[in-house]
Specification:
Layout (H helix, E strand, L loop, with lengths): L9 E2 L2 E2 L8 H16 L1 H15 L5 E3 L1 H7 L2 E6 L9 H14 L4 E6 L3 H13 L2 E7 H6 L1 H9 L3 E5 L6 H14 L4 E4 L9 H9 L1 H14 L6 E5 L4 H7 L9 E9 L10 H4 L1 E5 L2 E5 L24 H9 L2 E7 H15 L5 H7 L12 E6 L7 H8 L2
Parallel strand pairs: 4-14, 5-6, 5-8, 6-7, 9-10, 9-14, 10-13
Antiparallel strand pairs: 1-2, 3-4, 11-12
Amino acid sequence: MSYNADEKGYYGEFGGAFIPEMLYPNTEELRQNYLRIMEEPSFKKEFDQLLKDYVGRPTPLYFAERLSKKYNAKIYLKREDLCHTGAHKVNNTIGQILMAKKLGKNRIIAETGAGQHGVATATVCALMGIECVVYMGEIDIARQAPNVARMKMLGAEVRPALSGSRTLKDATNEAIRDWINNPVDTHYIIGSVVGPHPYPDMVARFQSVISEEIKWQLKEKEGVENPNYIVACVGGGSNAAGAYYHYLDNPAVNIIAVEAAGKGVHSGESAATSALGKMGIIHGSKTLLMQTEDGQITEPYSISAGLDYPGVGPMHAHLFTTGRAEFISITDDEAMKAGLMMCKLEGIIPAIESSHAFAILDHKKFNPNDIVVINLSGRGDKDLDTYIDYFEL
């Protein structure tokens, strides 16, 4: 069984492109060209060069000594928090801005929840001198003010999404509307492994640099390329897709996906799609989706803006239903405590999204020789207000 997308963009029964006719030319142009462009030596060279000199890759694979001691396993952190802009998101935006240039597009739109993808998109648009519009839910604009300021400083226009729950889902709806209205000159940089084909596959390929590095870094440190476990938080799931990518077809590597249970999986305020989702269509792809009996999308909730999404990328839906990945749901409280523990044990303030991944250490027993790689997908600067309020610092 393959865990990658087939030529029609399906991961098993999930994926595809369910889009209004108006969007067909946009996605079709991308679908016909993305693999060819990504394989061009000139594209590869520019992409790799920017990842190295601008983003700061390779990011370290750090042996977390005190954490390892506490949980009696060999725990490594993949330090995506050390990327330029503070998260893994920039790996994908660098790739997509180069793709947009190759396709002759001179205007970029994006959606953002936590603001990290918005910042990463605004960053590469500034780098390339291309117009940038970022859609962001009104609620997220309020809770992620520093990132809104960053985007504006980088020259992007931030447009609030005022409909629905006024979070990531609604920002995505607005961005799709914009794309329908501006099909010729505009490229839509989607920030996660969601959306119509070829986006989930394209974003996963750009992020796969994460697992590519983990392989040779582990070989250097442990003499083996494969960890026993690879752990990542999953909202839409791009950091996870990147961390899992080169291990998908290797059953010896256990994959753990960590979702946001919010105030509890069955509290009515949760974003645990694997536990609560049923098959449905959101933002152009067929996937697992939190919805009511009659198919209305239910509002997700998580203390972390980046995991606050009612669905999950089709790759992850497939990993869940096939049992290839173990899905664990972590509450707000567990995530926040794990974040603070990371500060005090390792001197690292993680993004709250990443804190969800660390919280599984209290749920899962590892053997002393197990090599556990946790993807530290972002740094906690953007979440300081949330940490301050939560812990009354």
